[in-house]
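Aim 2 progress update. The chain analyzed this quarter is reproduced below.
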Amino acid sequence: MGIMKPVSSQHYRVALLLALVYMLLLILAQMQTGVTRDEGYYFKAAHEYSGWFKQIVEEPSKAFSAQAIDKHWSYNHEHPVLMKTLFAASYSLFHEVLGWTSEITAMRLPGIAMSALGVALTFLLGVGWCGVRTGLLAALFLAFQPRYFYHGQLACFDAAVITMWLAVALAWLYREDHHLRLGLVFGLAMATKHNVLFFPILLLLHWLWLHREALLRGYRPASVDGAHGFALPVIPWWVLAMGLIGPLVFLLHWPYLWPAPLERIGFYLNFHLHHEHYPVRYFGAGLWEPPFPITFPLVMSALTLSLPLVVACCGGFFEQSRQMLHRLWWGSSDRHDKGAFLLLNLCIPVLLIAAPSVPIFGGTKHWMNALPFAALLAALFCAPILAHLAKLRPWAPALTIALLVLPGAVTTARAHPHGIAAYSELAFGLRGAAALGMQRQFWGGGLRPLLATINAEAKQGAKIFGDRMNEDSFKAYQRDGILRADLRFTLHMSRAQWWFTFHQPDSDWVLSAIRSRVDARLVAVADREGVTIVSLYRREGK
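Predicted structure tokens:
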């Protein structure tokens, strides 16, 4: 494989069009998607961070004191704040100033924009790799994977960090002498989510692979005086750029770190190194604590990604692996070896989550940064077929791309707005996955379709037990008029007149407690394909 192909202004226009269309789809889709537990926390964080920026305008002399920083930035300090700050800015502009959107939509717009940018960057990466058809197929493969589409609608970091991972990958492949750009992009990625902290390891492995022959030639065999060893090359500029600029950007973007940088960065790293475990239902078993199955990410990927993507990705994986072995055996003058880079980006996120001690909650989102590269592998595998079809009929490649993307798009549409419950053809859809005993729901977002029932039937001031929905999400619904303002949130089941329960392992006790009550009556369920996602119960006479 040669150097990356140039990307023209026309390619950028196509990428922009893809991003805008996808962004519009996500904006429309999220109007039916429930607010997740994490979103509630991030909404609250965005509101609190906004207070600091207001203080800069009103009292600039006090805003940078440790007291002011701790007041406004202490909440949710286990995550970087780039996206949460964008949530706050979007809320202020589109909801408060312009009045164009609801609060929930305004908060979600930065995440939606990042998701759309991820599709555009995947297209550009494919164009640089093998041409327009490859880029288009890879971008559409990514866009219409149900879980990417779901996470892309949320005010969270999971889709955003996929985009930033892609941005670092592009900065690396097109770096030439632009090391400062690589360091800056890496710093912004660090400011998005901790996943990217593993990227330097990936780049080091790729760099060692590219320089394997030079390193071997630099080996000094034992001489007369017994001296031997490796003559290592000079530290490359990209190491210095990423090692210095990246952490500097990370530190500067996060005011909470400023009063005690070492102590607070230490807390941040320690929190994620020792993250708590949340249960996952997997083939009928509740996985509560490690060791977790090593095969979990592979099996879940096979059961949640569309079948054409899985098959083509496997083909691409074996083809690129074959080429790597060929280059290793016969040697290679290729100074880029993009195939190795592609395989590293596919494998490292999966291998990290496959470690038996690593938390596996969240379905597939924790290794989704591998998904664009799975889409690229699949598109590269299909590229010769598309090229051959183009010689037969000019319209044949477009039809083939549409047919390859269609299964994922259909599954996405059928699962919406419960995208986290989407399962693909290998699982025989959600019904098949339910029969297998797989997870249906995470983080309380699935109850939004049932709020209309409460609005219509609940008495004035009724108390609602939300199960996995937190109070911040509850209040967000009320501020947007989706839930009546007189209704009250409670964490105590005994005090509630209405109960939600989610069909996930950590909510089994809730369902048992509700069913044990003689005054509880099932009122409604949110389901897909006949599989219950969320149940709503009411206390009789209340």
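Residues 445-539 form one domain. The first strand starts at residue 219 and ends at 220. These observations will guide the mutagenesis experiments scheduled for the next reporting period.
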